[in-house]
Design goal:
The complex is a heterodimer. By secondary structure, chain A is an alpha/beta fold. Chain A contains 7 helices and 25 strands.
């Protein structure tokens, strides 16, 4: 069981900044995110795109914002459960919550802050009528352990970085790799595209473009797929695995069943006070919440996180008074023993 | 207002809405759909309008001359589902006077 003060669901910009604000109040944080790395949408959708409305940054790339936020909160030693989706929440007799992920990891905290953005990122599944019958029986939407494909025949579909990178990687592991994409052009890092071209020339990757997988066949498991070239006739390919890699899209997911008041795919909160939901002890901050006048902006998430931490402090330290301290005056004491403070001004007399 | 144009948007339930879209606010079609709440929040414009998701895919039913697809839009549509020959990303269609009478249908959520 992982125990912490504030359990944050979602490691996007709002969740990461919460770690800093909580740290100033001596509260420890742990973050859960379905993605394998922190940053949320900033890492997954647009890491190389600029943002222009972060105060004091005339321009910053989304990926760099994530890096800076991680650096800012590092001294408060946040814990991370990455690549796992928060699935269930149970309230305990002592008022704390236990949140369990889809992989069974349990977390306990007196305060839960949902900073889930648009939800957890789930793979986009192609529209093939019997595809769900073959899930985990040859069809997989993400590759967790490439060794599973050793000496197997693999068909990958998609045109982005993950389709290219996995085709390259598996060409050394699998007995046969076929890459299928709807266009001749691929959208990926230039060296990945060139590597695939090279492997295709060497006969290590069987490239079929422009084409689409149009049917799946098999009895108890996937045995073959049908691929149709644009304007061509369908062709069967025997295979052990089909891996469609069409990116991820966010879904509110299991959080929707936690008994929270939901409106417009977002969690209703009390914005007059502290961004608490209808369940005391559970807060929602950033893009995942809604209230009159809500704006889904990173900078609004930062503000919401800051006020939420004040309320969390009162729950965790009942009866204690809290007075606002400025970092410039008090400095920042990390949980790792580090201390940041303003340099003392030198006083020297003039003769 | 004189700078408004009339467009027809068929939502994902098949209901056609005739709406007025301002042309002086640098809006795109995806934003108009959100402005009029013709699709639930969170199911359209997920990436904010960068042609990096396909949640605003629509089928253009009128014969308007649209701007050519950018490489980003072309690439995104090549990975999207339910794509037809008249598919476009709503976020890439600007609301300008030339779009008067535009008719589109929102593609299914995927």
């Amino acid at each position: 069981m992982i125990k912490t003060d504030i359990l944050i669901i979602g490691a996007g910009p709002t969740g990461l900044f919460t770690v800093f604000e909580a740290g100033l109040l001596k509260l420890k944080c742990h973050l859960i995110d379905a993605l394998p790395k922190p940053g949320g949408q900033c890492s997954e959708i647009y890491p190389k795109k600029p943002i222009y409305d972060i105060p004091a940054y005339p321009e910053i790339l989304a990926g760099d914002l994530t890096k800076k936020l991680l650096e800012q909160s590092k001294q408060f030693e946040p814990g991370f459960t990455l690549g796992e989706r928060a699935e269930t929440i149970e309230k305990q007799g002592n008022g704390s919550f236990i949140v369990t992920t889809n992989k069974g990891t349990k977390h306990q905290a007196p305060v839960v802050a949902i900073a889930g953005g648009l939800g957890s990122f789930e793979p986009r599944k192609p529209v093939l009528k019997n595809i769900s019958n073959f899930e985990d029986k040859g069809v997989a939407y993400m590759i967790k352990d490439p060794e599973v494909y050793r000496n197997k025949r693999v068909v990958i579909a998609g045109g982005g970085d993950s389709a290219l990178d996995w085709s390259i990687f598996l060409s050394d592991v699998a007995s046969e790799v076929t890459l299928i994409h709807r266009r001749n052009e691929f959208r990926g890092a230039l060296d990945s595209v060139e590597k695939v071209q090279d492997l295709k020339n060497k006969g290590k990757i069987n490239l079929i473009t422009p084409a689409e997988v149009t049917a799946l066949f098999g009895h108890n498991k996937l045995e073959s797929i049908e691929v149709t070239k644009t304007g061509g006739i369908p062709q069967r390919i025997d295979t052990d695995a089909f891996i469609p890699l069409f990116g991820l899209s966010p879904k509110l997911g299991p959080i929707a069943n936690w008994g929270l008041e939901i409106e417009k795919n977002a969690i209703k909160v009390n914005n007059a006070l502290d961004y608490q939901t209808n369940i005391p002890g559970i807060f929602a901050i950033g893009d995942v919440n809604t209230y009159p006048g809500k704006l889904k902006l990173i900078l609004c998430g930062f503000h919401e996180a800051t006020l939420m931490c004040q309320a969390a402090y009162k729950i965790i330290n009942p009866g204690k008074r809290l007075v606002l301290k400025y970092t410039t005056v008090s400095g920042v004491d990390g949980f790792d023993g580090s201390r940041k403070e303003a340099p003392k001004s030198v006083v020297k007399s003039i003769d | 207002m004189s700078s408004d144009i009339n467009i027809k948007i068929t939502d994902r339930l098949g209901v056609t809405h005739t709406i007025e879209a301002p042309t002086d606010m640098a809006l795109n079609l995806m934003e108009v759909v959100r402005m009029y709440e013709l699709a639930p929040e969170g199911t359209i414009g997920v990436c904010g309008g960068m042609a990096m998701c396909a949640s605003c895919q629509c089928y253009v039913q009128s014969t308007h001359e649209l701007p050519e697809k950018s490489d980003d839009e072309e690439a995104m549509l090549s990975e999207a589902f339910h794509v037809k020959s008249n598919s476009r990303l709503g976020c890439q269609i600007q609301m300008i006077p030339e779009m008067e009478g535009l008719e589109v249908e929102l593609a299914p959520e995927a």
